[in-house]
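W.,

You were right to be curious about this one. When I first looked at the sequence I had no strong expectations either way, so I just let the prediction run and decided to look at it fresh. Below is the sequence, 344 residues in total, followed by the output.
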Amino acid sequence: MNTLAKTPVTVITGFLGSGKTTLIRHLMANPNGKRLAVLVNEFGSVGVDGDILKSCAGANCPEENIVELANGCICCTVADDFIPTIEALLARPVKPDHILIETSGLALLKPLLKAFDWPAIRSRITVDGVVALADAEAVAAGRFAPDPAAVDAQRAADESLDHDTPLAEVFEDQIACADIILLTKADLAGEAGLSAARAAITAEAPRTVPMLAVTDGNIDPVVILGLGAAAEDDIEARPSHHDGEDGHEHDDFASVVIELPEISDPQVLVAGIQRLAREQNALRAKGHIAVAGKPMRLLVQAVGERVRTQFDRPWGSSPRRSQLVIIGERGDIDEAAIRAGLGI
């Protein structure tokens, strides 16, 4: 079957908090006449991104076309979740013209790309492209790109550290699989930061791919949709730290869901989240919070000490239930310590 007859799928990947959901919201608002479907995969048992996207549903991407895969990381649950979900979307009375997949920030791309060769779907869909998002400000600061000199110094001091950190491996695998890289939060990084981020990513990338600076997900969809990469056909050109392994686990990371009472001052919660990032190495926090006297939910999203809050929609008939998902490296995640650190 000709690739052009297949339904194109764009895989949107990137580290925790790099702006994947913001980009997809922009694509949903600017579909260029295409009927979209979105698969959202989150790390943790409480979905936040899917809820955000459903609030943006419209004629070209109705709510029933936004599907959350919350039973585990998409690269580990291909047979149980991903394949049946794709089959169900393709069986809809009105089939989507283009499918967007938002991977979890911890997903490895190659197991997902290999799934496109499964007999049940390989003649019906194709990977139009892999779009990797990188937080330009963070990369410029060296948080997700190893410093070779520092690594060499660590190796000399302790042979047990003769390996990349889990965070670096995830980042590098995402870059290695990309057909195009978006340097997000360009306004925060500035020209010097963007230049440093480009240099750091170029040093890690196994091949030359376009890199574009983006702020708030604002990019012409024509630039990233319709790449025609057929990534499932050149998997070997996308190296991974896990090549040659039969499988992988996400034991390096853990998440915990914290139930909170109504709060009176959001700034107290913001300060608590920043304290967790500093003192307990919390990588990511996200959730919906009930604020006393406010009829709307407070959406909280944090990457390290950078915390963003906004009231997104009324609670309506939904229970005013405050839940905060905290993600970090295993060993740093302790529910009792997190509760104490939040100070609420």
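Here's what jumped out at me. The chain has eleven helices and twelve strands. And, maybe more interesting for your project: The CA atoms of residues 110 and 244 lie 11 Å apart.

Coffee later to discuss?

I.
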